[in-house]
């Protein structure tokens, strides 16, 4: 076995055990295991909790405890026992202590790192916010200990529709009528600031460290001015344009929406129709092929939005596809007459005597036969390109419209292979429309009602009666083939949860096309965690259309444009933008509403003020938050662009990560970040989404401060919440619930117990007492080797942002391994080895190293606990520059100690064997205890025999170790241990309990034999070890020789035990 980092995994239990006599292996599992089937181990451990310590090392502890409690004198040596002492209590007292510790940091904080994505200032925080901010805080605090200058400015997104809606909802009809834009903005600003205040208090309560006194708010004049500047830079590069284009429009919010503001709920059903448009003229290339079918020839189209038919301007075909002229042969009348059979409605055209010949894609003939429930007889085929420039009569207003060639979006996957094209209502239609100079017709108003341009449909709602009216009209005019419900993904307004429409309006756009390649290139240079995120954002960026950045709302940053009253031409140039920017930086964006056009225009345009009017559009809020690199990273002291890290939920690939990327690349050519981490969502314990109706919502405030029923939801404190954050693999969805929190609390308590053990045994420690490494006992060198490997491993995982691995290492090493071995064994020499003895001092040297390393490596995750420990350190810690680290975050990350790591591999090997052996010895001791041969393990003597000469020699050395700490019996916590050369020398009747196990890695058949008998001699009154020397010192007839020496050199002192 090589001496690698992995060898720090101790207490192997993989060897088989054979007991002579009886007993079953199950008995030896005395550490107990959790009955809870969750991924967290709940082995008992801790200073006083360890079952083995209760059983074996109870002696001096219990004796002194009794003594200190003022009970009857239980032994005159009790005061010479060096029990742990610390003011650091087992109770975290999180309710009062954590805020105190947070105050301590506030009063002593320095500067900070990563760029905070602004949460929306619109309501209470949920557990997802806690996950996000705590992850950021763990990273910031780690970097801080790593001696980085960390600047962390928390931010809030303060503009936008949701806040505007909240304000409006809080008012009655009458006061809403009185509302001017400025009044509305004032109310919205007040609401946002109020929310920021509340959210900030919660974030602070999570123990998140930040520049709370100078956060960034998107409503701050300086921020707004920086945003106008970004807009200006993009405008000057001609990436901003005004155009009439179809955009996602929400009739329920009366505004355009960005893609990030849409959602696609399950179960949306549209009314889909197949319609026929009558061909009235042929192109030259189709004349010979189609003339014979006129005038009874139609084009078949399919749409899920019949209300867009009035805006139809063309039918598009794919030039490369084959099309067929088919004759309809409908089934018997009976099938056709029931228009209201709930599912499919057949058009009256099918009942007419003279049925039309219809053009569809050849590949779809079979599919359509099934779908329409009739035979389609193919009479002619031709190429799509032949159809270009044929003319048809618009089914409603009888305009003559062309057949055009569309793009590759026309396929034979669905529909008819001929696409109804309404450039005012669809992105691809719009592009095709540009190519053929088709009219961009969109006869629908802001509320989603048809305008007068839609003729007879005027006033009807396109998502309701208007849609139906169009279908009925088509049927009456013999244009409807069939109508049927169609289930598909359809965009909804994510705020109002109502369907949106695609509608052409005059809007401002950022031309993504203009800088798409630069954006793609910069994505490539960013570190994405998890790595698949890169693919996600690449795909989204590659496929996104131009970004509609104007909104028809009041609560936001104005688009700084004036419009000529007559020509409607916008006025916007470097001069006007920079003038408005300087006004906003001074007065805030309200100025746009209260200042006159004359004031808002720069000097050179002032005399023309009467010819212009102000625009009323505001910017998409994603443009607000997407400008934070300019308003914060570029402007604040200690920050720069690109930031090292952005860290948000995975939904931000299409939100903030993207809007920040686009604005930054467009104006500066680079991404605003060099690394991006995304995390998943938080679900309940069973993996369900949290919702009030399910009653499974975990409120971070309740986790920290407790719920109404403290029995069910106790106050765990921020550190337990933070420990949970560290425990989850945040790259996928994280689970939380009562049971998980209970386990976290349990693990927290054990970790606290470990730290308390360390503090308690270092009460008299001074750095100058340290034993130099070369003089340490083997057991101590091995302990430092393990510690250093663990610190190294933890550091590597912090660097990789894999906190859940750190959580696992801490749980295994700090909580389980240390308590079960080193701490357990150390008690004897710490308590009874003599206050200033070599054996106690060497142990303290190791404990001090553990305390300082452990407290620092847990500090980023559990800052309150770490600070609490630090404030209870019984000795001062100096930094490299000689200054005293008064707070844990004034100290530095533990530097790797190469000497400790450099333990020779055979040493590492032998220790792994000893630990294995110790586990097996414990099993036999447990058997002897169950059978009442012994009570405490100190009443036992252990015999070992192994044929492996190497191991035997080492063990014999240890059984006769010159230094007490390495003695084999101390390691087993028994009074004696003997390595026997031959089993024949052992009279079996003297050794009632025996067992064997095999060292698996050895080459030969290497069975180790273990025997247990009662210890020889009498019990020492002071240390409870058995010894044949007890009784041989006339002055102290009840002491063993070790205690005799300790008592002799060390005067009895006043000691108080830990209560
Ligand atoms: Zn003793």
- What is the number of E strands? 36
> Can you summarize the main beta sheet?
11 strands, mixed
Percentage of residues assigned to helices: 25-40%
Mean pLDDT: 85
Model regions low in confidence, pLDDT < 50 over at least 5 residues: 1-73, 337-341, 1052-1059
What is the CA–CA distance across the termini?
Answer: 44 Å
Give me the number of helical elements.
35
Cα Rg: 40 Å
Small molecules bound in the structure, each named once:
zinc ion
Please give the oligomerization state of what you see. single chain
Structural class: alpha+beta
**Percentage of residues in DSSP E strands:** 15-25%
Structural descriptors:
disordered N terminus, 1059 residues, disordered C terminus, 11-stranded mixed beta sheet, 36 strands, binds zinc ion, 5-stranded mixed beta sheet, single chain, elongated, alpha+beta, 38% helix
Task: Write the SSE topology.
Blueprint: E1 18-19, H1 51-56, H2 58-68, H3 94-108, H4 127-145, E2 155-156, H5 161-169, H6 173-178, H7 181-205, E3 216-217, H8 221-236, E4 240-250, E5 255-257, E6 262-263, E7 269-281, H9 284-290, E8 297-303, E9 314-317, E10 322-329, H10 333-336, E11 345-346, E12 357-361, H11 365-372, E13 375-383, H12 384-387, E14 391-393, E15 400-405, E16 418-421, H13 427-436, H14 465-476, E17 480-487, E18 492-493, E19 501-510, H15 512-524, E20 527-529, H16 532-543, E21 547-548, E22 550-551, E23 562-564, E24 570-571, H17 574-587, H18 591-594, H19 597-600, E25 612-614, E26 618-619, H20 621-626, H21 628-633, E27 646-649, H22 656-668, E28 675-679, E29 682-684, H23 700-705, H24 718-727, E30 734-736, H25 738-760, H26 778-799, H27 803-820, H28 822-832, H29 838-858, H30 863-871, H31 898-901, H32 905-930, E31 940-945, H33 949-959, H34 968-972, E32 976-979, E33 993-998, E34 1007-1014, E35 1018-1019, E36 1026-1027, H35 1041-1049
Parallel strand pairs: 2-3, 8-12, 9-15, 20-28, 27-28, 29-30, 31-32
Antiparallel strand pairs: 1-33, 4-5, 4-19, 6-18, 7-8, 7-14, 7-17, 9-16, 10-12, 10-13, 11-17, 14-15, 19-21, 22-26, 23-24, 23-25, 31-34, 33-34, 35-36
Helix pairs in contact: 3-30, 4-24, 5-7, 8-17, 8-22, 15-16, 15-22, 24-25, 24-27, 25-27, 26-27, 26-29, 27-28, 28-29
Bound molecules: zinc ion (ZN).
């Amino acid at each position: 076995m090589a001496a690698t980092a992995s060898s720090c995994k101790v207490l192997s239990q993989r060897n088989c055990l054979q007991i002579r006599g009886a007993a079953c292996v199950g008995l030896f599992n005395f550490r107990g295991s959790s009955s809870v089937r969750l991924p967290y181990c709940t082995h008992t451990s801790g200073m006083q909790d360890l079952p083995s310590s209760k059983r074996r090392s109870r002696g001096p502890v219990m004796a002194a405890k009794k003594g200190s409690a003022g009970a009857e004198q239980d032994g005159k040596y009790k005061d010479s026992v060096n029990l742990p002492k610390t003011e650091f209590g087992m109770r975290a007292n999180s309710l009062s202590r954590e805020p105190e510790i947070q105050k301590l940091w506030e009063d002593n904080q320095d500067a900070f790192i990563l760029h905070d994505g602004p949460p929306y200032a619109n309501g209470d925080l949920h557990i997802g916010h806690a996950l996000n901010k705590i992850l950021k805080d763990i990273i910031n605090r780690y970097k801080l200990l790593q001696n980085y200058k960390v600047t962390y400015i928390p931010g809030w997104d303060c503009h936008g529709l949701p806040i505007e809606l909240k304000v409006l909802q809080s008012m009655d009809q009458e006061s809403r009528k009185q509302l001017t834009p400025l009044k509305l903005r004032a109310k919205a600003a007040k609401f946002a600031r109020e929310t920021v205040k509340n959210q900030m208090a919660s974030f602070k309560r999570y123990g998140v460290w930040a520049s709370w006194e100078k956060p960034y708010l998107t409503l701050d004049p300086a921020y707004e001015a920086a945003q106008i500047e970004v807009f200006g830079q993009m405008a000057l590069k001609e990436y901003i344009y005004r155009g009439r284009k179809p955009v996602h429009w929400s009739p329920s919010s009366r505004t355009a929406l960005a893609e990030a503001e849409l959602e696609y709920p399950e179960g949306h059903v549209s009314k889909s129709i197949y319609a026929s448009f009558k061909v009235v003229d042929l192109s030259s290339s189709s004349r010979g092929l189609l003339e014979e079918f006129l005038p009874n020839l139609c084009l078949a189209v399919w749409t899920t939005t019949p209300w867009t038919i009035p805006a139809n301007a063309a039918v598009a075909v794919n030039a490369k596809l084959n099309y067929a002229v088919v004759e309809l042969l409908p089934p018997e009348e009976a099938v056709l007459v029931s228009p209201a059979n709930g599912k499919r409605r057949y058009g009256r055209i099918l009942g007419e005597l003279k049925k039309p010949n219809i053009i569809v894609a050849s590949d779809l003939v079979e599919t359509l036969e099934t779908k329409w429930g009739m035979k389609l007889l193919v009479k002619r085929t031709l190429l799509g390109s032949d159809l270009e420039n044929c003319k048809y009569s618009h089914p409603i207003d009888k305009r003559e419209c062309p057949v055009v060639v569309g793009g590759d979006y026309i396929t034979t996957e669905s529909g008819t292979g001929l696409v109804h094209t309404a450039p005012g209502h669809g992105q691809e239609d719009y592009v095709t429309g540009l190519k053929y100079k088709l009219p961009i017709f969109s006869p629908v108003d802001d509320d989603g009602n048809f305008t007068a341009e839609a003729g007879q449909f005027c006033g009807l709602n396109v998502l309701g009666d208007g849609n139906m009216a169009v279908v009925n009209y088509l049927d009456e005019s013999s244009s409807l083939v069939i109508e049927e419900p169609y289930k598909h993904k359809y965009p909804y307004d994510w705020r109002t949860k109502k369907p949106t429409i695609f509608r052409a309006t005059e809007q401002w756009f950022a031309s993504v096309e203009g800088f798409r390649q630069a954006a793609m290139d910069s994505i490539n240079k960013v570190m994405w965690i998890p790595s698949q995120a890169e693919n996600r954002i690449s795909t989204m960026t590659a496929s996104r259309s131009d970004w509609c950045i104007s909104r028809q709302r009041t609560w936001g940053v104005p688009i700084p444009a004036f419009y000529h009253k007559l020509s409607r031409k916008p006025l916007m140039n470097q001069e006007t933008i920079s003038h408005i920017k300087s006004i906003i930086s001074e007065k805030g964006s309200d100025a746009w509403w209260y200042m006159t056009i004359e004031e808002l225009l720069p000097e050179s345009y002032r005399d023309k003020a009467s010819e212009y009017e102000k625009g009323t559009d505001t910017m998409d809020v994603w443009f607000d938050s997407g400008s934070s690199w300019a308003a914060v990273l570029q402007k604040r002291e200690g920050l720069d662009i690109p930031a090292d890290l952005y860290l948000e939920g995975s939904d931000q690939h299409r939100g903030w990560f993207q809007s920040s990327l686009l604005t930054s690349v467009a104006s500066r050519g680079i991404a605003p970040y060099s690394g991006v981490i995304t995390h998943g969502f938080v679900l309940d314990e069973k993996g369900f989404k949290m919702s009030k109706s399910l009653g499974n919502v975990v409120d971070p405030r309740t986790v920290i401060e407790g719920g109404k029923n403290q029995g069910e939801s106790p106050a765990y404190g921020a550190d337990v919440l933070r420990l949970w954050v560290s425990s989850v693999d945040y790259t996928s969805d994280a689970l939380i619930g009562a049971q998980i929190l209970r386990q976290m609390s349990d693990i927290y308590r054990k970790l606290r117990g470990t730290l308390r053990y360390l503090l308690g045994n270092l009460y008299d420690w001074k750095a100058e007492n340290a034993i130099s490494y070369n003089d340490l006992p083997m057991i101590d060198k091995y302990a430092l080797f393990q510690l250093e490997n663990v610190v190294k491993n933890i550091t590597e995982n912090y660097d990789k942002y894999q906190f859940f691995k750190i959580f696992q290492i801490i749980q295994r090493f700090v909580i389980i391994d240390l308590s079960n071995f080193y701490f357990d064994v150390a008690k004897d020499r710490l308590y009874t080895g003599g206050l200033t003895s070599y054996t106690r001092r060497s142990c303290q040297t190791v404990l001090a190293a553990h305390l300082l390393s452990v407290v620092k490596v847990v500090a980023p995750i559990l800052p309150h606990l770490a600070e609490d420990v630090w404030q209870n350190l019984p000795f001062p810690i100096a930094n490299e520059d000689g200054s005293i680290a008064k707070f844990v975050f004034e100290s530095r990350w533990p530097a790797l100690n190469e000497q400790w790591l450099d333990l020779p591999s055979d040493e590492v090997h032998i220790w792994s064997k000893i630990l294995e052996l110790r586990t097996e010895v414990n099993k036999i001791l447990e058997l002897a205890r169950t059978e009442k041969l012994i009570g405490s393990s100190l009443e036992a003597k252990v015999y070992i025999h192994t044929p492996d000469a190497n191991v035997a020699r080492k063990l014999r050395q240890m059984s006769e170790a010159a230094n007490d700490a390495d003695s084999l019996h101390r390691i087993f916590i028994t009074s004696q241990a003997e390595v026997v050369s031959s089993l024949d020398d052992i009279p079996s009747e003297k050794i009632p309990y025996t067992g064997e196990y095999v060292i698996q890695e050895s080459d030969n058949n290497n069975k180790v034999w273990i025997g247990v008998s009662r210890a020889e001699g009498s019990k020492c009154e002071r240390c409870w070890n058995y010894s044949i020397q007890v009784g041989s010192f006339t002055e102290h007839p009840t002491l063993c020789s070790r205690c005799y020496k300790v008592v002799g050199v060390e005067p009895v002192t006043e000691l108080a035990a830990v209560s």
